Amino acid sequence: MLTDIEIAQATTPKHITEIAEKAGVPESYLELYGSNKAKVDYNLLVDQPHEPGKLILVTAINPTPAGEGKTTTTVGLADALSLLGKNVVVALREPSLGPVFGVKGGAAGGGYAQVIPMEDINLHFTGDFHAIGAANNLLAAMLDNHIQQGNELGIDVRKITWKRVVDMNDRQLRNVVDGLGGKAHGMPREDGFDITVASEIMAIFCLATSISDLKERLARIVVGYTRDDQPVTAGDLNAQGAMAALLKDALKPNLVQTLEGTPAFVHGGPFANIAHGCNSIMATRMAMSLGDYCVTEAGFGADLGAEKFLDIKCRLAGLNPDAVVVVATVRALKNHGGVAKADLNEENLEALDAGLPNLLQHVENITQVYKLPCVVAINRFPTDTEAELELVEKRCRELGVNVALSEVWAKGGEGGVALAEEVVRLCEQPNNFTLAYTDDMSLAEKIEAIAQKIYHADGVDFEPKAAAEIAKLEKLGFGHMPVCMAKTQYSFSDDAKLLGAPRNFRIVVRNVKVSAGAGFVVALTGDIMTMPGLPKVPAAERIDVDETGKISGLF
Question: Are β-strands 54-60 and 88-92 bridged in parallel, bridged antiparallel, or unpaired?
């Protein structure tokens, strides 16, 4: 059996100018990065506005080691819609180097439902993440330099909130002491690094709608507080212009293609467990403008990615989804039902029934909380039995939701035609899209709404530090913002070990912080970290390149 990278390398891609022509991108707006990837000038949205196409969100159950195949389903669904004669464009996130070299490996789809060139997409691509990291670290350097040069703003070095970033899983950098070596080398202080995808710059990058909007958002970033607890911003340091200059080319969406030649924008990549987990608004709007259907995804399970896509991205961008796909596998549901990974190939209806509440709760959240039409896509594995598939279909039908088998990993677009037909049907239905909370609620009420409506928790406990910070942020005028929950992706709860659809638990918020430029407040729960570490055997150990430049090991 061929690996994902071998399948991708065996495919002869079309020249990117051909893909651009298919998507309706005039050559004058195209900036080539070789023959198989390009950037598209964002001025296209202003110069040639179009009626937006249908917006389809692909999300999933809580992830397990058994895998769900959300990106694979997203790509395969787009190819299937294309086979049905629909004008479709994909919008995906860029993978972070952290997971690529860490646990997950590559993240460009799988099997015969991939975006290519998968090696480039998984590695440096067009350099967007490097630009984001440089902009983040420029602000950090200007902040420390301001303190070194006399600290005219009166910044309290104990209240600096801005960290440097690197796009790598490196636990050694979580907590550091810097500025050592004497007076000429800076002010000694406790510091730390985040992974680039957790940077507020990444969130701003993905929520900005223009260069001017980008600069305004960058200027609003809160980097710390003065001795009398007043916020200090990037604008106070006059950093926003230089930061925007570093980001001006990165802000242009990246155009690539699927294995079957469907146009795809891959742009931006915030994590969904510690950030808002969606590709850029710029890319989504461009895909909706060029296609009659835009297929996009949100990270991790629907309790994180979809919730943030709907409550943050759609709220801030004024988007209204037309249909939602919830991806699940029989294997993953059995894992939620208590079966060990080694035993997932055996039929186990009892465990499947025990794990199904995880899927059903995600579906019910989409249809009852957000009032959106939904279909369940079962990413089929050869070990799935007919009895298992029938049980999933029966339980979903009880909620009034159809199930479609997806075999896109093995068959490409052809394996997703039934799913595509159901998605087209759903897109024609009117919906009453509703958010989980309103802007005028307090920050605590917004957090409680998410915990109770989406996670089905009994309530929220705020640690004293979090309660004090909420009171401070509301006093400073940030209370109107939406909330971005930082929570484990493995469970509806803040405990990664509580699988399925747990009940009788409470969410503990240990701290909150404002991302004023992005326009949301982050609530940190459990032991979630903004700098992951590598596993005992990192994926990097399998990755190699031969003397011809051919890469192997990226799945």
Answer: unpaired
Q: Does residue 555 have an active-site annotation?
A: no
Phi, psi of 296 (to 5 degrees): -130, 170
Alpha-helical segments (H) within 270-322:
281-290, 307-308, 315-317
Q: Is the pLDDT of residue 108 over 90?
A: no
Number of alpha carbons in the 13 Å side-chain half-sphere of residue 278: 32
* pLDDT at residue 542, rounded to an integer: 87
Paired with 89 in beta bridges are 294
Tokens standing for residue 214:
């980008």
Q: Which residues have CB under 8 Å from 526's CB, separation 6+?
A: 487, 488, 494, 495, 496, 508, 510
Strand runs labelled E in 130-250: 155-160, 164-166, 176-178, 189-191, 193-195, 222-226, 231-233
pLDDT at 106: 64
Strand, coil or helix: what is 174?
A: coil
**CA dihedral (146, 147, 153, 158) positive or negative:** positive
Annotated catalytic residue 93:
yes
Note the pLDDT tens digit of each residue in 533-542.
998 999 889 8
Q: Which of 37, 86, 93, 313 is catalytic?
A: 93
**104 classed as catalytic:** yes
Query: What tens digit of pLDDT does each residue of 297-319 get?
Result: 998 999 999 999 999 999 999 99
Asked if 224 and 161 touch (Cβ cutoff 8 Å), the reply is yes
**Is residue 236 a contact partner of residue 153, using CB atoms and an 8 Å limit?**
yes
409 a catalytic residue? yes
300 as an active site residue: the answer is yes
Whether 486 sits among the annotated catalytic residues: the reply is no
Would you call the peptide bond into 532 cis, given omega within 30 degrees of 0 as the criterion? no
Mean pLDDT, rounded, for 508-535: 93
For residue 144, the one-letter residue type is D
**Cβ distance 554 to 5 under 8 Å?**
yes
Q: What are the two backbone dihedrals, phi and then psi, of residue 544, each rounded to the nearest 5 degrees?
A: -150, 170
Alpha-carbon distance of 119 to 138, in angstroms, equals 29
Structure tokens at 12: 């002869």
Q: Which of 129, 162, 271, 381 is catalytic?
A: 381
Q: Are strands 506-515 and 459-462 parallel, antiparallel or unpaired?
A: parallel
Please pick, among 14, 22, 104, 472, the residue that the annotation labels catalytic. Answer: 104
What percentage of the chain carries pLDDT values higher than 90? 84
Query: Which of these is catalytic: 59, 72, 329, 367?
Result: 72
Burial class (CB in 10 A: 0-12, 13-18, 19+), 504: exposed
Closest by Cα among 555, 58, 110, 34 to 279: 58
| Residue 381 annotated in active site | yes
Closest among 512, 506, 59 to 324, alpha carbons compared? 59
Query: Given 300, 505, 520, 555, which residue is catalytic?
Result: 300
Q: How many residues does the chain have?
A: 555
* DSSP summary character for residue 119: H
Local structure of 92: helix, strand or coil: strand
DSSP 350-394: HHHHHHHHHHHHHHHIIIIIS---EEEEEE--TT--HHHHHHHHH
